[in-house]
Amino acid sequence: QVELVESGGGLVQAGGSLRLSCVARGATFIRYAMGWFRQAPGKEREFVASIEKNGDSTRYADSVKDRFTISRDNAKDTVYLQMNSLKPGDTAVYYCKAESFIDYWGQGTQVTVSS
After folding, report:
1. Are 38 and 48 in contact (CB under 8 A)?
2. What is the largest CA-CA distance in the chain?
3. CB contact set of 36 (below 8 Å; sequence gap of 6+)
4. Hey, what's the torsion of the CAs at 11, 14, 16, 19, to 10 degrees?
5. Which residues pair with 80 in a beta bridge?
6. How far apart are CA 91 and CA 86, in angstroms?
7. Could you report how far apart the first and last alpha carbons of the chain are, in Å?
């Protein structure tokens, strides 16, 4: 059983930064591509960013490109999401996802950006 635990969310003013972390427990971390998704109130969950198993390839949603950076530390079983130049529209619950033959989701961490 894989457990994903996110942290690092909080309240920040527009233009500020946050760094989210997601630790994978009970998993051979390098076997999983990792992703970040978010869900705002009343909206569907949407893709934010992803990173391949060895970290050599990343993808981003157009809405966060050039502002967010995904990275991973396979020695620490952790994936990160560095979020800069935050906007009120980035307000959402952010979830990490481990992708393989079976996908696993974390419980989410709230990010609130005030104007």
Report:
1. yes
2. 41
3. 20, 22, 48, 49, 50, 70, 79, 81, 94, 95, 96, 97
4. 50
5. 21, 71
6. 9
7. 40
**CA dist., res. 51 & res. 103, Å (int):** 14
Return the amino acid letter for 8. Answer: G
Ranges of residues in the chain with a pLDDT under 50 are none
Q: Which tokens sit at 76?
A: 């620490």
The 3-state DSSP class for residue 10 equals strand
- Enter the tokens of residue 41: 């109130």
Candidates 33, 9, 12; CA nearest to 93 is 9
Q: What pLDDT is stored for residue 113 in this prediction?
A: 98
pLDDT of 48 reads 98
Q: What is the DSSP letter of 45?
A: -
- Which DSSP symbol is given to 84? -
Return d(Cα 37, Cα 60) in angstroms, integer.
10
Q: How far is CA 63 from CA 66, 78, 82, 99, 101, in A?
A: 9, 24, 14, 22, 28
Q: What token pair was written down for 70? A: 């995904």
